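Structure tokens please, single chain.
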Amino acid sequence: MSIQKIAQLAGVSVATVSRVLNNSDTVKAKNRERVLSAIKESNYQPNLLARQLRTARSYMILVMVSNIANPFCAEVVKGIEEEAEKNGYRILLCNSGSDIERSRSGLSLLSGKIVDGIITMDAFTKLPELSALIGAAPWVQCAEYADAGAVSCVGINDVDASQHVVSQLADSGRKRIALINHDLSYKYARLRERGYKSVLHLRELDYQVVEYARDLSSAAGMTAMQKLLADNPPDAVFAVSDTLAAGALRAIEQAGLRVPQDIAVVGFDGTELADMISLTTIEQPSRDIGRKAVDLLLNKIDNPDAPTERVMMDWRFISRASS
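Here you go.
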């Protein structure tokens, strides 16, 4: 189906169809309605190459995630894709694993003008290296944010959220609260641990045990929990992801202990998994984080000199049967 056929179906000129496709505000409402109806009826797809040549844009966004298997990352990507498509963009997904060489390969798309900008979800410690590779290209850091620098970012206040979790556990009478954390090269891991330790200090709770999981899998959470149970077991566990918490629940059950009577468990992220296993958790607005990242990136694409923005979104504590 060509643009000429769309014009015939709508009973308007080719120029009018072109203006509608380019979101021009000079088209009469009645004519716009007729064109959009004809497009929908005929399932017309605009010629992407022609659009790229006309605008000098690819209308593609590179999205680099540290681990697409992480349910939180997957939800953020869904939000990114929804908002990108709403604005006429498509995404290219790169599962970098926070490996700088894999990142370098993906970022080669910038120099080839194959993508107009980039959204990253890599470890905070990789930002200086990424910055050198990305240069002046439009860039937004998603979920992992920087307190300074030129890159715009969006996330939540991890310290506040983790402080709330530990305070809730302490208020319920828990005295031996352990933390299952992950790789400290990620800023969220450092901030959540900071929040955990700060509440223990304020409450004068001597029990302070942190077990570091090898990755963000349920199996790793189970292994970490087994180590905690082996020596001076806790009466509560705060895990920095729902997947780690799910593994902790399995280890507690296999040890013949009860949740929450013997050990309370709290996760982080608010994924569908948490709802399925009735896990108390901190819910991040994952899809909204992705949508906001796209908004920030498109603003940077349209306005290269726009100031850096750092957006902190709201989180929510969801109490369920595990605590």
